[in-house]
Amino acid sequence: MLSCGVRKIPANKLSESNVQLIDILGTPHIGLFATVNDEYILISQLVSANKIRILEEFLGVTAITTSVSGTHLIGPMVAMNSNGILLPSTTLDEEVDIIKKSVSDMNVDVLDCKLTALGNLIAANNRGAIASPEFGSAEIRKISDVLGVEVFKMTIASRSYVGSICLVTDRGGLIHVDASDEDLKRVEEVCHVSVVRSTVNDGMKYIRSGVLANSKGVLIGARTNGPELMTISRGLGL
User: Fold this and answer.
1) Sheet holding 79-80: strands in order across?
2) What is the per-residue pLDDT across 64-95, written as a single tens digit (0 to 9) for each?
3) Which of 90, 109, 174, 191 is the most core-located residue (most Cβ within 10 A)?
4) Nearest by Cα to 38 from 20, 52, 56
5) Beta strand pairing status for 151-153 and 166-168?
6) Cα dihedral sign for 157, 163, 168, 173?
7) DSSP line for 203-229
């Protein structure tokens, strides 16, 4: 066991070294406190500097420590890819300023919408995005403008909170275990990656709550079992 709750995967379990098990703030639900693209990790201010350094080095990103809407549950609130960061209408002005000053090379905007858990409602990589059918057409256009990709409205396993049950990078994707073949195929077509069904943290179906991933590496909640670990690693192309 490494310091700060990072556990290395035995070499006989995985052929790649860019997958690790980890806790954040004492919980395996690591996707609640951060969200990541290929350049930045947006992460709660509650996380220690030492842990943040480990995350930065492992994922090859720069950390932006902040709250969003006064909460430290960053993952459920924020939708982002390497083109842009989309924040909910409840985001405080000072939070927007912190993020904008940190990412001058990306679109950063607020979605004026009654729906605020954007991370739970949108899944995106740098090739496409899926979004909850609860968004209106004007909101979908704004999402597309900020993230710089085409956005397709859909449900997954008849559920509208698609961002919490699907995660995509430019190398692969994960989706709720009850997703239909049609759901899986549609995500693959929109985001242009292969997608596999998986759980995390020993049976958790809300896959994004337990995974932080970009094209460089994958961090997985420490409660994840062996079969899940292999499936997630394969699904995300690592």
Assistant:
1) 79-80, 84-88, 107-111
2) 999 999 999 999 999 999 999 999 999 999 99
3) 174
4) 56
5) unpaired
6) negative
7) TBS-GGGGEEE-SS-EEEETT--HHHH
Q: Is 96 exposed, middle or buried (0-12, 13-18, 19+ CB in 10 A)?
A: middle
Nearest to 111 by CA among 45, 176, 163: 163
- Other Cβ atoms closer than 10 A to 20: 21
- Please check whether residue 181 is in contact with residue 150, taking contact to mean a CB–CB distance below 8 angstroms: no
Kind and range of the H or E element at 62?
A: strand 62-66
Domain boundaries, the chain: 18-235
Cα angle for residues 179, 230, 7 (degrees, 5° grid): 120
Task: Tell me if 84 sits within 8 A of 107, measured CB to CB.
Answer: yes
Q: C-alpha 158: how far from its chain's center? A: 21
Identify the bridge partners of residue 197 per DSSP, sorted by sequence position.
Answer: 175
In tens, the pLDDT along 200-212 reads: 999 999 999 999 9
Confidence (pLDDT) at 149: 99
Neighbour count for residue 67 (Cβ, 10 Å):
18
Q: In b/e form, how buried is each residue of 128-150, taking b as 16+ CB within 10 angstroms?
A: bbbbbeebeeebbebbbebbebe
Tokens matching residue 178: 């009850």
pTM of the model: 0.92
Domain boundaries 18-235, corresponding CATH code: 3.75.10.10
**Mean predicted confidence (pLDDT) in 102-108:** 93
Find tokens 């460089």 and name the residue. Answer: 216
